[in-house]
Amino acid sequence: MAAIPQPSQPSPIQNSKMTYIKKVAESPGLTSVPSSYAFTSSPNDQAVSDEDPEDSIPIIDFSLLTSGTPDQRSQVIQELGQACKDWGFFKLINHGVPESLTEAMIEGIREFFNLTDEEKREFEGKNLLDPIRCGTSFNTSIEKVFCWRDYLKVVVHPEFHFPNKPAGFSELSLEYCERTREVARELLRAISESLGLEPSYIEKVMNLDKGFQLFNANFYPPCPQPELAMGLPPHSDHGLLSLVTDNGIGGFQLQHNGMWVNVNAIPNSFLVNIADQLEILSNGKYKSILHRAVVNKKVTRISLVMTNGPSLDKIVNPAPELVNNGIDQPAYHGITYKEYFQCQQGNNLDGKGTLDRIRILIV
């Protein structure tokens, strides 16, 4: 297993006297971004485009995977594989999670971030693997410039944890987490097939019965100078597969063919992306893609990201079936998911830097 740099400060990850960005944004008379939130490189330095109708993010109909005819399922698996290869992202429709439940989740997140600072500090957490962590930016213990973002991160599987405020939010979230986890497992079965593996391959090899599922709620309030600030810098996700939804406010951008693309959401859909552990397992056939969150002047954006990963103790390697054919070679060193998670989350958010550290250079 490859050695990998440890987090700069593996235990304390944030200052208990930190100021939430919601409070900063609501400061009376705020007309400019405080220097501690101003990035020297503007989020808009690189070219940004809207989705091109002729080259837009693929749309996958989940219902055809679960209740379509064998021919329809086969066709969707082929489309899914192409989406993973060409984009690393796809929009998922007809997924079976009630729209009313998703809307209630977004409202619950809004109510959580509307709690007083004192109430939110009850859930700050101190370590990366604490089951509940509420904070601001990404990693305030080492950042020189902060992100225009508050967050709530909760470990919801293999054991379910959740804040006890606001009232009823925990029960609602339990149902949402269970439903999205089942969607992710079905997608991973189809992705296994698209790679030429058995449907249950990823499920068994990644030990998904004890898989690490993380609830990530993000709060991006209005910013007086959005061209100087950043909600989240470019990064890839650490798990296998992420399911993203939001409150309908734009701000999610992904990188495609060297350009940043503004993602236009479809109502009651998930934006699904390949994450780093799936890139490793597929030996680079499917790649995790850089994406970021930008902010705006007028309205608050709320997003909810459900990260689905292997069990934390699982050593993730390229699937032997994808490399032991006399042609391909392993492109990544094996590493436990826990070690990978701690490295990525314990340092500055740095594109795909953690993945690059375990990449094998093939001459």
From TrEMBL:
MF annotations from Gene Ontology: L-ascorbic acid binding; metal ion binding; oxidoreductase activity
Sequence ranges assigned to domain Fe2OG dioxygenase in this UniProt record: 210-310
Region entry Disordered, spans: 29-53
PROSITE patterns: FE2OG_OXY
InterPro entries (UniProt xref): DIOX_N, IPNS-like_FE2OG_OXY, IPNS-like_sf, Oxoglu/Fe-dep_dioxygenase_dom, Plant_2OG-oxidoreductases
Family: Belongs to the iron/ascorbate-dependent oxidoreductase family.
Pfam families for this protein: 2OG-FeII_Oxy (PF03171), DIOX_N (PF14226)
UniProt keyword terms in alphabetical order: Iron, Metal-binding, Oxidoreductase, Vitamin C
Keyword Oxidoreductase belongs to the record: yes
PANTHER family given in the database record: OXOGLUTARATE/IRON-DEPENDENT DIOXYGENASE
Ranges annotated as biased composition (Polar residues): 29-47
Listed SUPFAM superfamilies: Clavaminate synthase-like
Record's protein name: Fe2OG dioxygenase domain-containing protein
